[in-house]
């Protein structure tokens, strides 16, 4: 049985994972710039290799985060559908709908 409390938790989870995804994307940009700078300056090969490993690890986190966001979004949609069937209303419902729209927009933007 879906409750407003469950909906709030699932909405917050989606929002947190979106923030996490943006954080990883920024980290990849930062690490890529740092790697390019090290190559440009002719850094030690060992240091460069270590930096490339850091960049690779950061890049690996993005698909994992997207997968968790997709799963979280599906849970949120299911909970919202259950609550709508029982004619629940409130700010939480609207917030969940807005979060779903935001996440779907994010996914569409990434596909382009």
From TrEMBL:
GO-annotated cellular components: cytosol; microtubule
InterPro entries: TBCA, TBCA_sf
Location within or outside the cell: Cytoplasm, Cytoskeleton
Coiled-coil residue windows: 14-41
GO biological process: post-chaperonin tubulin folding pathway; tubulin complex assembly
UniProtKB keywords: Chaperone, Coiled coil, Cytoplasm, Cytoskeleton, Microtubule
Domain of life assignment: Eukaryota
Molecular function, one GO term: beta-tubulin binding
Family statement drawn from the similarity comment of this UniProt entry: Belongs to the TBCA family.
Subunit structure and binding partners: Supercomplex made of cofactors A to E. Cofactors A and D function by capturing and stabilizing tubulin in a quasi-native conformation. Cofactor E binds to the cofactor D-tubulin complex; interaction with cofactor C then causes the release of tubulin polypeptides that are committed to the native state.
Stated name of the protein: Tubulin-specific chaperone A
């Amino acid at each position: 049985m879906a409750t407003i409390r469950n909906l709030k938790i699932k909405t917050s989870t989606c929002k947190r994972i979106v923030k996490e995804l943006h954080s990883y994307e920024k980290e990849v940009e930062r690490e890529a710039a740092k790697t390019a700078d090290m190559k440009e300056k002719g850094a030690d090969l060992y240091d460069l290799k270590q930096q490339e490993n850091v960049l690779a690890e950061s890049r690996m986190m993005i698909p994992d985060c997207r997968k968790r966001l997709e799963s979280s979004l599906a849970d949120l949609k299911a909970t919202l559908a259950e609550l709508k069937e029982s004619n629940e209303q409130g700010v939480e419902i609207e917030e969940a709908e807005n979060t779903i729209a935001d996440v779907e927009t994010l996914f569409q933007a990434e596909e382009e």
